[in-house]
């Protein structure tokens, strides 16, 4: 997110009515500004390079270039925007692929205006993967299909970092984690940064995926046991 001024947004969807609707809603807020719109992933990449938005609202299924590949390209840019994936279905097979491509979260197109605005602000702040019940269900569903061996780096986490990682994986924001563990929010941010560094992860979205894929968090069940710290 930029240090001053409104959050700069790029809206990407192949349906003009959707682009117009999102633009009208977002531009009605003093802290948000739509700097561009695109009808496919290729145009989104071109505009992102030109306009340097903070957040891209990205549709998945589009002509020319779809949202997943566009997200991958955007997240590899030197100044990479955060990507909020838009989907019509709460259990869309493509959403998990988009998260793995680097998206910071996803949003249903039929979400309420309040949910849309909150989602954009959360992703823009880099605070957390969106965590309505459907998000947790989706991640659990698709991560369970491809269980991987836990990376050895998990053993380098301290017990407290392990606790924080479990809560991040459950979709809690820093403030919520701080309240649950009786810590200062800045302390939680420091723990999250340490976790990402030790596990060589780009952001907390990757941490969520790793936690599910490695079995640290078990979909529909209890969390995995504590890990040994080095």
Sum up the overall morphology in one term.
Answer: globular
Q: What is the helical fraction, as a range of percent?
A: 40-55%
Main sheet overview: 5 strands, parallel
What is the H/E string?
A: EHEHEHEHEHHHHHH
CATH architecture classification of the largest domain: 3-Layer(aba) Sandwich
Structural class: alpha/beta
Number of helices: 10
CATH superfamily of the largest domain: Response regulator
From the alpha carbons, calculate the radius of gyration and give it in angstroms.
17 Å
Strand order of the largest sheet: 2-1-3-4-5
Low-confidence stretches are: 224-230
Named CATH topology of the largest domain: Rossmann fold
Beta-strand portion reads 5-15%
What does the average pLDDT come to?
83
Compute the separation of the termini in Å: 35 Å
Q: Write down the domain tally.
A: 2
- In CATH, what is the class of the largest domain? Alpha Beta
Describe it:
This protein folds into two domains: 7-126, Rossmann fold, CATH 3.40.50; 148-213, Winged helix-like DNA-binding domain superfamily/Winged helix DNA-binding domain (Arc Repressor Mutant, subunit A, Orthogonal Bundle), CATH 1.10.10.10. The longest helix has 14 residues, at 185-198. Helix content is 47%, strand content 12%. Helix 1 links the parallel strand 1 and strand 2 (32-38). It is of the alpha/beta class and 230 residues long. It starts with 6 loop residues before the first strand and ends in a 17-residue tail after the last helix.
């Amino acid at each position: 997110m930029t240090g001053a001024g409104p959050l700069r947004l790029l809206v990407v969807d192949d349906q003009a009515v959707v682009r117009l609707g999102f633009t009208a809603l977002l531009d009605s807020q003093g802290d948000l500004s739509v700097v561009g719109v695109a009808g496919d992933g290729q145009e989104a990449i071109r505009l992102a390079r030109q306009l340097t938005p903070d957040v891209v609202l990205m549709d998945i299924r589009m002509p020319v270039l779809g949202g997943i590949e566009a997200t991958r390209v955007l997240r590899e840019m030197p100044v990479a925007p955060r990507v909020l994936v838009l989907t019509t279905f709460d259990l869309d097979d493509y959403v998990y692929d988009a998260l793995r491509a680097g998206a910071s979260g996803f949003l249903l197109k039929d979400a309420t205006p309040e949910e849309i605005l909150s989602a954009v602000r959360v992703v823009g702040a880099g605070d957390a993967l969106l965590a309505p019940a459907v998000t947790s269900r989706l991640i659990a569903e698709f991560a369970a299909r491809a269980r991987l061996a836990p990376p050895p780096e998990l053993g380098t986490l301290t017990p407290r970092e392990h606790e924080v990682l479990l809560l991040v994986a459950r979709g809690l924001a820093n403030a919520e984690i701080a309240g649950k563990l009786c810590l200062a929010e800045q302390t939680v941010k420091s723990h999250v940064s340490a976790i990402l560094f030790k596990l060589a992860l780009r952001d907390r979205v990757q941490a969520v995926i790793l936690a599910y894929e490695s079995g640290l968090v078990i979909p529909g069940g209890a969390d995995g046991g504590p890990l040994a710290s080095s």
